[in-house]
């Protein structure tokens, strides 16, 4: 019965039109423009490529939208500039050096607090355009400072191609490692933070592992934080990756929700009880120096991307963004600031967020 339900969900999802990059008309109502710096190992139409290409895509955040929503033009459908994310400009770079120099030029005139680089790696079943729009939405709704970069890997863009997407993510390890190293080398940057969602978390962990075993521990040591959002990742594989990586960047945040129905299906497909992103508490990773942030109280729909979907959670996270997630006796955040929701589970910090926080 559960397998029949899974098939029905995938068939229905496969009927949905895919997002497309569409230019906004002049004078369209715009709440803000977000510049997304893209490194990609896929064509715009989705095919795998042997090497990276680089671009900047300026995205208009529509004026007529609510926080936590993401609407965009679809292939073959009429666009609505008032309500949909659309493109306002950008361009392609000749290679990695041109990409790096353009970011350095962008950072040069900014104050120190606005010189972070935040790299987002998308998850399963994303088109190229959808990943770009999602990056812009996260940057805008979470008020993320600095440069917003996006790594686009060649998802098959088919809900039933789950195993194919796993292969495509692994195919892109070299490209992600090259991208991280390139951003690490940007002159004038302040912090670099890596964020990944769903299956993108497995790719990001593989990239960090490859940096470690390839003798690039120096790059890992200069990473100022990692956030895995609803990671679709086997717990045993995660532990193996951590052993190879060594000391993790701090903070290392794992955003989880036991109500995540997408990861429940993933666990079913994988014939295992849990994925890293829907562990019920910090005990499965208690021996690691990580922060486990439970957002189940904010889960709606499938519960697979609470940070992107919940305006209440976004508002809370904006206030907590710069906190040091250690316990007070170590000089970190005071649990009282978020309604006593912080506790220690061996080496891990457990945070249970709620609307009352």
Can you describe this structure in just a few lines?
The protein has 357 residues and is α/β, with parallel strands linked by helices.
Q: Note the gap between the termini.
A: 39 Å
* Tally of helical runs: 11
Integer-rounded radius of gyration: 19 Å
Content of β-strand: 15-25%
Quaternary assembly = single chain
Helix proportion range: 25-40%
SSE string, helices as H and strands as E: HEEEHEHEHHEHHEHEHEHHEE
Sheet/helix structural class: alpha/beta
Question: Outline, from the CA principal axes?
Answer: globular
Number of domains: 2
Report mean pLDDT, rounded to a whole number.
Answer: 89
Uncertain ranges:
1-14
Largest beta-sheet characterization:
11 strands, mixed
| Total DSSP E strands | 11
**Main sheet strand line-up:** 3-2-1-5-4-6-7-8-9-11-10
Task: Tell me what you see in this structure.
The chain is of the alpha/beta class and 357 residues long. The chain folds into two domains: 26-223, no CATH class; 224-236 and 248-357, no CATH class. Helices cover 33% and strands 21% of the residues. The protein is built from eleven helices and eleven strands. The protein has an eleven-stranded mixed β-sheet, sandwiched between helices. α8 links the parallel β7 (225-229) and β8. α4 (162-171) runs parallel beside α6 (199-213), α5 crosses α6 (199-213) and α6 (199-213) packs parallel to α8 (235-245).
Task: Lay out the secondary structure.
Elements: H1 2-14, E1 30-42, E2 48-62, E3 86-93, H2 96-108, E4 117-121, H3 128-141, E5 147-152, H4 162-171, H5 173-184, E6 192-197, H6 199-213, H7 217-221, E7 225-229, H8 235-245, E8 252-256, H9 261-270, E9 291-294, H10 306-309, H11 311-320, E10 342-345, E11 348-352
Parallel strand pairs: 1-5, 4-5, 4-6, 6-7, 7-8, 8-9, 9-11
Antiparallel strand pairs: 1-2, 2-3, 10-11
